[in-house]
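Illustration: Dephospho-CoA kinase.
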Amino acid sequence: MRLVGLTGGIASGKSTVSNLFKASGIPVVDADVVARNVVQKGTAGWKKIVKTFGNDVLLENGEIDRARLGQIVFSDPAKRQVLNRLLAPHISSGIFWEILKLWIKGFKVVILDIPLLFETKMSQWTHPVIVVWVNAETQIERLMSRDGCTEEEARNRINAQLALDWKKSEADIVIDNSSTLDDTKEQFQEVLRNVSEPLTWKERLRSRDGLFSVVLCTAVGVLLAQKNLL
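Result:
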């Protein structure tokens, strides 16, 4: 199995690229979806958040007020680190189970859409790593337009993340999403060809079919050895 890392920055267009992979028939494990699931009302993640941040981060129905929680952690780096530490084990476990389900189904290429790919060190488990990059001016404009925030608020939220230029320098593949959607789609086609290349022998061993082959060869080898000993 080939695990492809996909990351970027806020308002960089990562979700656009993620959707292009889905439309091309390649499964995507979305860490944001996993994160939402692990903080649903009554879950262990939910209980940790309420215990740490109090009932002020709850909606009337008891679910987490993600907008309110976001305001708290984006304005306070220490609280953001606390939240990340609280949820990291639950999110990692959720991602693992999603990968396992796709492995069982026999998928050979899986996209891991993880905003904190580098921060959580999960980049070491993925190859290639794709970074969706955008220039700073465009990123600010898109974030202001998307969320209706001020320029200062947009800059604060961007600065709260690992620098996108640094992520770009660490990437195996960069998609420049600063221009038009058509331009991004054109770059995506080349990326799609890249990640769809035949698996390496190590990747084949990690696939379901590869495991079956190893088990079969091992079983045959044991039977032949036993026969020779008789």
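Reading the tokens back as a structure: The first strand starts at residue 2 and ends at 8.
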